[in-house]
Structure formats: C-alpha cells, structure tokens
Task: inverse folding
C-alpha cells in the first residue's frame, strides 16, 4: 500500500510538472491586456503626448518627481491619476512639453532655453553624481535606452530611462566636470495595419546627447541653431561639444523624433522586446537545474518517509502483549503528550492564522500573474493586487486562528481575533512608518502622502479587521478538532537529546533546503526591485513557489518525525521555526547582495534597504513557518490515528 501511494504521488507530480512546462514553453501561450492597459490605435498625424515619471537612482533608492529639477515645463502641469501601487512605488506621472505627431518625424525641435543659477547647477550636479535617470511614458510604454549587443549575443537589451547627465574630464585636464543630456533623440517603433492604415506603438527608445548648442545673433523664438538645423539636415552627433553644468550657463533643450515601422505581429506581445535579459541563458539554466534538484530531493524524502512510516505502523499494530508494548521505543511512546497544547499557544494561533492569510494571498496573486493580469505594462498592479488580496484574505486568517485556538481549549475568541488583526500588521506598519519618515526627511516623492496613508489605515481597520472577526466567529462556532489520542494530565519527561537533535541546530538546518529552492529566483527578484529592471517570468516563479511549499512541508515533517522518534513531543513551535528559519537565510543573502551588487553609500538609503528586506524576511518567516506547521499538524494526526493505542 505504501509503495502504491509513492508511485501515485510521483505520477501526479510528474504529470502536473509536465502540464505546467508545456503551458510555459508553448509558442501559442500569449498574454492579454486589461482595459486601460491595452495599446491604442493611432492615425497618421494624431498627437502623441509624452508623460514624465519620477527620477530614479539605484545608488540612493530615493525617487524624486521630474519637476523637482528645473527642466522645461508645459504651460500647465497636470498630474495623472495613479493607482495605490503606483503611489507606493513613488511614481509621479505628469504631462511634459514633448509632443509628437504619429508618423511625422521631427528634427532639432527646441523645447526651451534656460540659464542656470548657482542653486540650479548644484541640484543638477548632485543628481548627476548620484546617477539619477529620467523616466518617461508614451502610450503606457516606458522610455528605454537600447544597449546593443553582438550578433552572437542576440538583440539589444534595454535600460529603463536615461541618465540626467554624466561625469567626465576634458582631455589634458584632471578637473571633474558635469555634463547635461540636453538633446534627446527619440525613436518610436510601431506596427502598421495594412488594411486600416492605423498604427500601434510597440517601442519607445531614446539616445541622449550632451550638446552645447550655438546660434547666431540674439535669441528669439525663430532663432535657428547652428549645432543642429532641420533645414540644413544637420544632425546631433557625439562629436559635438558637450553641455557643462555650471553657474550662469545657458542651456538649450532640444529633441528629435523618428518613427520606425516593424512587421505586424499579434497584439499581446507589445512589451516582449523590453523583457529581454542580458543573462537569460544563465537564468533559464539555473531555474530548471534548481527545479530538477528540488524535485529529486522531494521524491526521495517522500519515498523514505512513506516506507519508514509504513514499517513503523505495521510493527506497532502487530504488538499484542503488554510486555511487548512496554519494550517499544520511538514515536508511539509519546502518544499521550504529542497533542498537549504548547507554551504561548495563543501566539502560535495568531502566527498560524496570519500565515494562512499570506499563503492565500500569494497563491491568488501568482495565479493572476501567470494569467497575465499583472504584466509589467500594468504599473503598480502587482502591489495593488497584493494589498487588496491581503486585506480580503483576513477572513481566512481569523478562521484558521480560531479553529486552532478552540482545539487548544480556548474560550475567548474575540481576544484571538484581535491579536490576529494587529500583531503582524502593526509590526509591519510601525517599520513602514519609520521608513516613510526617513523618506519624508529627504523630500523624496517616494514618501507616502497623507491621503494614501489614510487609505492604508482604512483598508486595515475598515476591511481587514472586520473580516478577521467574521472568520474567527465562524471558525470558533464550528465543532472543535478532536485529538486522535487522549492527553495525559502529567507530562512525560523528555530524555536528553543527541547534539544533532538540539532545537537550535535542527531549526537552522531545516531552513537551508527551503531557501535553496528559491535563492536563485531571489537574485532576479532583488535585481528587479533594487536595480530597476523588469521581472516578468511569473510562470517560473509560480513553479518555484509550489516547490517552496513542498520543500517546507517535507523538511518540517522529516525533522518532526526524527524529533518524535527521540521521544521529544514539543513539536508545535519547532515545526513552525524549522521551515520559518529559511527567513534568516533570506535576510543574510539580502545582506550579501547589498555589499556585493549594490552601490549604496548614503545611510538613509541603506536604512531603507535593510528596513524593507526586514519586512520581506518577516513575511517570509510567517509564510514558510505556517506551511511547515500545518504539514506537521497533518502528519502527526495521520500517524497517531493509524496505530492502535491501548
């Protein structure tokens, strides 16, 4: 019977993995667009309004609004409506003086002429030194700078936004100078419908130049530049003299725009060209290799556990005499203590319920992401979805906490509901509030406005807390979960444990395998967050998440089995901490990533990084710990209900 179970488990696992792989790698698999995110059709001559977004830097991680620097401005600055996720990301989308007309190239258009004062020059120099980039949007497509590669390496890769300027030196001089990118050469790529002659924008690229523009005579609206002239077909090139950033410097901002037609393709791949990575082969190989290793280990652990348990249960059920029962050793000896409520059982209920809330949120988010609802073109969609799902999944948190609380013979369900509503969210909100105060102090657009903060508090108190209470009421009114065996009033003494069964040692060892299942994918996630790159392989992320669940469950069950065999029945909290300890490795890896991959030097920026990674690690602890706990909860009830207890 045990071998049949193992075989069916392996067949089901192989079938599921094969189906998912076919869906992921199939050429027919295509994403789709939501209303408001779908590309728009343009006729020739239609106006194209370029919008500006925040200024970003991977050195400071502090975004600023575009007009925090004195760039050229339109007559009236209009803020675009942003969703909750965009506001939390620090996006500030506004109109700009850059206006194109569809399929009508322009050359050397003058945007404005400015004269820098000392303060303006200082502000620009600081942003250039911190490597800030300008972000723009056209038809919901972000502006990118193409980085060409050789024919063997493949098509170019894209960097979001262009640098405000650059640092450099004149030949023969050691003095550091700052140069401003004041000329932008835009390229709008489009697909053309041969039947309707309408066009659909599929690419928005730029090549920035630093040019000290020159002109003859006095400046007026009709002044013609000598450095670039559309009438004389004189283009900007890298050989022009660069534009320095200094006090009392005259700066003229200009731009070109050209349109490139691309072969007609399907609608659903508008952002495919943006989603190329420089190390894509390493990425794919590492993910697949990691999945194969974890699946192999999972299969081995499952077979060992099922065969061993099948032998133990058969042996225990064959014991007939009292003398044989007294001579037995192993996990059956602690049957009268294994379901004894643990120390701080209320807090265990709270964390188990919160973990269920996290697990439900992550599963639903992953499903929506795989189906294409949360594509990179939907800015802020992922964060908005996760926040709303977290709020509405509060009902499952209350239900799970109350069910466990009643099993521990608890009677005050309102108390456990209140704790479930506040323990984890209050901790996260406190850290977030401190980090937001630091961002406010830097006058960054990443600081959450008062209105958004009020909306977050309303989601917490107005929706999440009531749902937790509803779930707790429903869970508490259901009949209590009965233990498979009776618990003695007097606890059994626990014998001295071997060094390898030391709680701290086994907990730390238990977290290695779950972390090993995700650390390669974690690298790409951290890169997308802190190095401002796209993350889009949600199909692989979903597989890794499923593997994480399986790994957490199996490593917790294995160590729980060894613990019970050594006659230690205090498994409740240890099962939670065993898989939850993977969060410690996540934070250590984040620390390693900070010192090896990032160039953050400012104390505030470092505090933001470690603050947010502390929040992520805490959430990962709750998620993985809950998975391990419920796996052991199911495991112990299964094995003790399978043996004859006199």
Result:
């Amino acid at each position: 019977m045990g071998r049949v179970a193992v075989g069916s488990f392996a067949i089901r696992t192989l079938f599921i993995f094969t189906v998912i792989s076919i869906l992921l790698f199939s050429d027919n698999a295509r994403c789709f667009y939501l209303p408001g995110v779908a590309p728009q059709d343009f006729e020739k001559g239609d106006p194209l309004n370029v919008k500006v977004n925040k200024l970003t830097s991977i050195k400071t991680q502090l975004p600023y609004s575009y007009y925090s620097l004195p760039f050229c401005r339109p007559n009236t600055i209009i803020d675009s409506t942003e969703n909750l996720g965009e506001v939390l990301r620090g996006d500030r989308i506004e109109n700009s003086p850059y206006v194109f007309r569809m399929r009508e190239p322009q050359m050397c258009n003058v945007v404005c002429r400015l004269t820098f004062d000392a303060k303006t020059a200082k502000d620009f120099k600081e942003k250039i030194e911190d490597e800030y980039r300008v972000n723009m949007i056209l038809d919901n497509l972000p502006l990118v700078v193409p980085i060409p590669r050789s024919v063997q390496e493949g098509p170019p890769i894209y960097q979001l936004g262009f640098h405000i300027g650059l640092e450099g030196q004149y030949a023969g001089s050691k003095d550091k100078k700052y140069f401003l990118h004041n000329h932008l050469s835009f390229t709008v790529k489009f697909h053309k419908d041969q039947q309707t002659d309408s066009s659909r924008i599929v690419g928005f690229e730029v090549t920035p130049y630093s040019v000290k523009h020159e002109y003859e005579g006095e400046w007026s609206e009709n002044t013609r530049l000598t450095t670039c002239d559309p009438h004389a077909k004189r283009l900007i090139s890298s050989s022009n003299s660069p534009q320095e950033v200094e006090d009392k410097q005259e700066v003229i901002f200009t731009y070109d725009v050209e349109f490139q037609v691309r072969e007609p393709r399907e609608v659903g791949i508008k952002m495919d060209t943006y989603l190329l990575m420089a190390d894509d082969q390493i990425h794919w190989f590492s993910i697949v290799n990691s999945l194969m290793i974890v699946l192999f280990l999972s299969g081995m652990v499952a077979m060992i556990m099922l065969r061993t348990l099948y032998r133990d249960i058969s042996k225990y059920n064959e014991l007939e005499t009292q003398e044989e029962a007294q001579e037995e050793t192993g996990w059956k000896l602690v049957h009268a203590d294994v379901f004894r409520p643990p120390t701080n059982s209320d807090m265990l209920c709270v964390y188990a319920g919160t973990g269920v809330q996290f697990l439900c949120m992550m599963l639903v988010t992953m499903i929506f992401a795989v189906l294409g609802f949360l594509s990179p073109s939907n800015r802020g969609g992922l964060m908005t979805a996760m926040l709303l799902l977290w709020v509405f999944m509060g009902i499952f948190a209350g239900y799970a906490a109350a069910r466990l609380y009643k099993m521990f013979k608890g009677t005050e369900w309102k108390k456990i509901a209140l704790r479930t509503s506040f323990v984890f969210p209050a901790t996260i909100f406190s850290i977030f509030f401190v980090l937001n105060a630091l961002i406010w102090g830097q006058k960054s657009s990443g600081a959450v406005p008062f209105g958004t903060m009020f909306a977050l508090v309303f989601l917490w108190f107005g929706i999440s807390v009531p749902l937790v209470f509803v779930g707790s009421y429903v869970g508490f009114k259901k009949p209590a979960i009965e233990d498979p065996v009776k618990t003695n009033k007097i606890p059994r003494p626990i014998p001295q444990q071997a060094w390898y069964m030391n709680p701290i040692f086994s907990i730390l060892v238990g977290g290695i395998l779950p972390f090993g299942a995700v650390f390669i994918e974690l690298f790409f996630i951290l890169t997308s967050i802190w190095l401002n790159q796209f993350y889009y392989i949600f199909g692989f992320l979903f597989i890794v998440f499923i593997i994480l669940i399986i790994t957490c469950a199996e490593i917790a069950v294995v160590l729980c089995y060894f613990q019970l065999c050594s006659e230690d029945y205090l498994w409740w909290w240890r099962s939670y901490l065993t898989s939850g300890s993977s969060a410690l490795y996540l934070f250590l890896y984040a620390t390693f990533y900070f010192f090896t991959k990032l160039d953050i030097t400012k104390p505030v920026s470092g505090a933001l990084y470690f603050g947010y990674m502390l929040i992520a690690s805490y959430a990962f602890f709750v998620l993985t710990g809950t998975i391990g706990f419920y796996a052991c909860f199911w495991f112990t009830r299964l094995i003790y209900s399978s043996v004859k207890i006199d």
